[in-house]
Amino acid sequence: MKMRSWLFAPGDSERKMAKALEGPADIVLLDLEDAVATENKPSARKLVHEFLDVNAASRARIWVRVNPLDGPHTLDDLVAIMPANPGGIMLPKANGRQDVDLLDHYLTAFEAAHGLERGATPVIVLATETAEAMFHTGDYKGAPRLAALTWGAEDLADSVGANSNRNADGSYSFTYEMARSLTLLGAATAGVPAIETICADFKDLDALRVRAEKVRRDGYRGMLAIHPAQVDVINAAFTPSAEEIAEAREIVALFAANPGVGTIGWKGGMLDRPFLSRAQQLLAQVDE
Which residues constitute the signal peptide according to the record (predicted)? Predict the structure, then answer.
């Protein structure tokens, strides 16, 4: 399935969840963590369960962000939502691979208890929200259920005691750009897509477009969204253009017509095998 846009919707708002699902987001993330106050979590769990039941035909698109494993709410979240068979789980504030392994044990038990296929519930991991997690971004290769890695800047700033995570010009400062890079490298090591973090200013769609196009060039394959208005911009940014597709097909055809060569002339320059690999990866995105 496509993973370009991941739109958050608070789990305690039936209206916002419905609006998110009606839109073009590839994945809708029903949030039981930061978007829901502690006193509202029990009612939010009930609403999310009911929403999953009513929209069972769209379950592959409906994922749930549960609360972090080092707090008191995760099991209560899973007890409430797993009988309704969510399309996937977002694990926040993971400290490393061991948290994914623990979540896998929980999910396997719930799947067995509710007659679901074992391993059918994939997981996206927020891999940089704690200081400890930054040292483990490369450890997720072979992690069970792993579908994607993403990163977060706000909780990381809180974890290290920073007053801000931005430079004077509004760009992320060094530690947070490093988090972005480590997430990209960790995802590549694990063989899963890297998903860019949110753009908090949902009214500045031009800035969103610039950032989304930039991180896609770097290797990211999708982006988190906090408002429906951001989804079309994200989908467009992470969809290869007709020109890119045509060029990639030309490169693949050129190497196919010249089997066994390591480098080949093209448009006044030379192409080697990494160019072929990138062209094939781009075409794989189109075929998803």
Answer: none
Alpha-carbon gap, residue 31 to 178, rounded angstroms: 26
d(CA 132, CA 137): 10
- CA-wise closest residue to 63 among 23, 94, 20, 101: 20
Token pair in block for residue 74? 């995760």
Contacts of 245 (CB under 8 A, 6+ apart): 282, 283, 286
**Residues 230 and 201: beta-carbon distance below 8 Å:** no
Q: Tell me which H or E stretch contains 194.
A: strand 194-196
Residue 153, Cα to own-chain centre: how many angstroms? Answer: 14
pLDDT for 287 equals 63
pLDDT at residue number 288: 56
| pTM of the full structure | 0.91
Q: CA-to-CA distance for 209 and 135, rounded, in angstroms?
A: 30
